[in-house]
Amino acid sequence: MSYYFATRIDQEFAAALQRTREALQDEGFGIISEIDIQKALKEKIGVDFRPYTILGACNPALAHEALNIEDKVGTMLPCNVVVQKTDDGIEVAAIDPVASMQAIENERLGEKAAVVAGKLRRVIETLGASQGGSSARSDERRPQIERDFEESRRELDWIAPAGTEALYDGS
Fold first, then answer.
1. Dihedral of CA 169/58/54/35: which sign?
2. pTM, whole model, 2 decimals?
3. Is residue 168 one of the residues assigned to a domain?
4. CATH number (domain holding residue 32)
């Protein structure tokens, strides 16, 4: 079993990074961390490295549920998504939460991981489809994506009512 989902994007790095952020948001994820590995390696150890950014993606409602099921699961959060320049172009890869959660023997957590995996897989498929694949598939999924997003927003509003600091600001 692979521990990630991946696709290639035929865009400049900055555009691919922005498109990835948008695709994650469309699936109800907020970006709670962003690490520019190229910059960090240059500053910390003086080496040149290819463009490589790690996005820490979080669906607050699902993260809350997972933390209530298994409090140490936070060691595996957020879900990392990598955008990197390779010899073959730009690659976007996301962790497969089902693979990573196999280390934790908890069936309920595995069920939540499967939901998150489905969302991350759709992000990767959407990015890949934008490279000339069928857009009808994303149009067909749009109602389900919107229902999932709205459900996550309602749960987030319950977790962090308006006027409180939230993990995801909805923008």
1. positive
2. 0.75
3. no
4. 3.30.310.70
In a domain, 167, yes or no: no
CA distance 28 to 136: 20
Tokens for 53, please give them.
Answer: 């950014």
**Would you say residue 39 lies in a domain?**
yes
- Kindly state whether residue 114 falls inside one of the protein's structural domains: yes
Share of the chain residues as helix, strand and coil, in percent rounded to the nearest 5:
55, 20, 25
Report cis status (omega within 30 of 0) of the bond before 143: no
Which residue, chain included where needed, has tokens 């696709």?
7
Amino acid at position 38, single letter: Q
Structural domain span for residue 67: 4-159
Residue with tokens 């190229």: 38
Q: Which of 23-32, 100-109, 162-171 has the highest mean pLDDT?
A: 23-32
Residue 26's φ and ψ, nearest 5 degrees, are: -60, -25
pLDDT digit string, tens, across residues 2-56: 899 999 999 999 999 999 999 999 999 999 999 999 999 999 999 999 999 999 9
d(C-alpha 21, C-alpha 19), whole Å: 5
d(CA 51, CA 23): 20
